[in-house]
Amino acid sequence: MEDAGRLLDETLRFVLSGVERELRRELDWRAVPAGVGRIRRVAIYSAALLRDLARIPLHHPEGIAQARFRVRIRYLERSAIPTIGFFVNRYPLSAERHSALHRALAELEACVRLVQDGRLRAVDEWYATMDEFRRLDEGCGRAADALASALAARPVDSASHDAGGASVVR
Q: Around Cβ 26, how many Cβ atoms within 10 Å?
């Protein structure tokens, strides 16, 4: 039988590497860097709108970007945050991994708030601006980097596991 510490480490790597891959997937061209001029913004919005309108009757497999934005937020709320939270709260982790996973959680929770920061919540949930696309893309990238740091960090020593299996932070 395999060493329990090694098995825990492999499980953490297997699960969190899938979350990291999903967070690195590109959302849309609207996630361009800050500081883009008005003319370029109008061009990007117009091109994205035309592309999305063409995709609707074609039932394009990638869907429209606004829907992908909402799906990403839902993925963060329902999958990524609870999964990372499980590892933070219930898994034996080294201090380095614990810190990295906390950074990832903070980034993702900030991303989820993007659909709650507008004046009209119903509109904010339905329509994402270029700035929100950019902030979601950047936040997911920083969270993925934190997950990569956690995956690269050394696992907790098997001798330091507590009896209940909770996090062991040194």
A: 9
Residue 167 forms part of a structural domain: no
Residue 170 in any domain: the answer is no
Residues composing the chain: 170
Q: pLDDT digit string (tens) for 92-135?
A: 999 999 999 999 999 999 999 988 776 766 666 667 788 888 89
CA–CA separation, 155 and 152 (whole Å) = 9
User: How many Å apart are CA 5 and CA 140, to the nearest integer?
Assistant: 29
The pTM of this model reads 0.78
The C-alpha atoms of residue 98 and residue 103 are separated, in whole angstroms, by: 9
**Which range of residues forms the domain containing residue 69?**
4-160
